[in-house]
């Protein structure tokens, strides 16, 4: 994968996360924005126990320092990173992994539109890696419609994106242009105190990427993919640290957090350790090769992995029903 492109995509993901640190979804008058599905000046009374949540669980993630999120998620994966791992496994392209492209017309609220927009962006990464230019167009149309409805479509040059998407030789350009669009979109959302939408889009991207990885792992076990899935444990904690900031305002966020709680339990016993060591240098065929001494070791059993796969698939099903 193009290193510059990969770095840009990770940076874009970090920016969206950083946008979530901007606070609640208030407008310039300090009131909740009706555009984002809230009632101005009105707080919704929610019994968390009705959704299987207890206060200890909420406090566990509400105590995370949102200001430090940018530093905490440097390993946040891009959709292309996940898709590239799958492609390198020689797993054929399959449309059954993707979220239905005709589902977007049923997204009624901004909550659903923002979460669905993230899901479609993740699928777009999968489509790009497999050079599926025809399907790329369909997903770009959904992304355009949803972003327009969320009043952020002005940051996407869809005419250019569509032209590039029809030429498989220019898919790197498609991704780079998309990343620039996300930079501009996130800046706008933060400036207008709509960070709740950023949180939902990032959640959609992350969850759909994990779902794609789990579906493939179920069919073909692979250590690299296994480590990728298990390594998402701290990312999940960061996601929840953002989402719990909004659960007092909208029951849809409560449902989303409650769904993700099952994944927290499935990943609970995964251990991720950083092993210290000195870099090793050697000459191979006249070239200097450096092996990093410091590395990460991930411990997760096959039984745990299959439970994670099962739970992720179930959450994705619930999210699809919620959308």
Keywords:
13 helices; 4 strands; mainly alpha; 323 residues; disordered N terminus; two-stranded antiparallel sheet; single chain
Task: Give a short summary of the structure.
With 323 residues, the chain is mainly α. The chain has 13 helices and four strands.
How do the strands and helices of this protein lay out in sequence?
Layout: H1 3-19, H2 55-62, H3 69-72, H4 79-88, H5 110-129, H6 133-149, H7 158-165, H8 171-191, H9 195-219, H10 223-230, H11 233-243, H12 251-267, E1 271-275, E2 280-284, E3 287-291, E4 295-299, H13 302-322
Antiparallel strand pairs: 1-4, 2-3
Helix pairs in contact: 1-8, 1-9, 4-5, 4-9, 5-6, 5-9, 6-7, 9-10, 9-13, 11-12, 12-13
Characterize the structure shown:
The protein is mostly helical and 323 residues long. The chain has helices at 3-19, 55-62, 69-72, 79-88, 110-129, 133-149, 158-165, 171-191, 195-219, 223-230, 233-243, 251-267, 302-322; strands at 271-275, 280-284, 287-291, 295-299. α4 (79-88) packs parallel to α5 (110-129) and α5 (110-129) crosses α9 (195-219). The relative contact order is 0.16. 58% of the residues lie in helices and 6% in strands. The longest helix is centred in the middle third of the chain and has 25 residues, at 195-219.
């Amino acid at each position: 994968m193009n290193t510059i492109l990969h770095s840009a995509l990770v940076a874009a993901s970090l920016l969206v996360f950083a946008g979530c640190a901007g606070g609640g979804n208030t407008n310039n008058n300090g009131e909740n924005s009706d555009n984002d599905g809230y009632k101005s000046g009105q707080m919704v009374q929610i019994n968390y126990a009705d959704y299987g949540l207890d206060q200890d669980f909420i406090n566990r993630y509400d105590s995370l320092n949102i200001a430090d999120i940018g530093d905490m998620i440097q390993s946040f994966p891009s959709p292309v990173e996940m898709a590239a791992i799958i492609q390198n496994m020689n797993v054929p392209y399959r449309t059954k992994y993707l979220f239905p492209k005709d589902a977007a017309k049923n997204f009624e609220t901004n909550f659903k539109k923002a979460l669905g927009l993230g899901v479609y962006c993740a699928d777009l990464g999968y489509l790009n890696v497999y050079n599926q230019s025809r399907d790329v167009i369909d997903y770009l149309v959904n992304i355009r419609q949803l972003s327009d409805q969320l009043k952020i479509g002005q940051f996407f040059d869809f005419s250019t994106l569509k032209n590039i998407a029809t030429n498989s030789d220019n898919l790197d350009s498609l991704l780079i242009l998309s990343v620039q669009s996300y930079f501009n979109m996130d800046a706008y959302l933060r400036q207008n105190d709509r960070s709740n939408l950023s949180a939902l889009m990032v959640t959609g991207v992350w969850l759909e990427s994990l779902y794609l990885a789990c579906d493939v792992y179920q069919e073909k076990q692979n250590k690299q993919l296994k480590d990728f899935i298990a390594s998402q444990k701290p990312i999940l904690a960061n996601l929840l640290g953002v989402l719990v900031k909004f659960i007092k305002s909208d029951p849809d966020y409560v449902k989303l957090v409650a769904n993700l709680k099952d994944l927290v339990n499935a990943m609970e016993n995964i251990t991720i350790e950083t092993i210290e060591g000195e870099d090793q240098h050697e000459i191979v065929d006249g070239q200097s090769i450096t092996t990093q001494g410091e590395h990460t070791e991930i411990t997760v059993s096959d039984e745990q992995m299959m439970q994670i796969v099962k739970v992720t698939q179930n959450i994705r099903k619930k999210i699809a029903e919620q959308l």
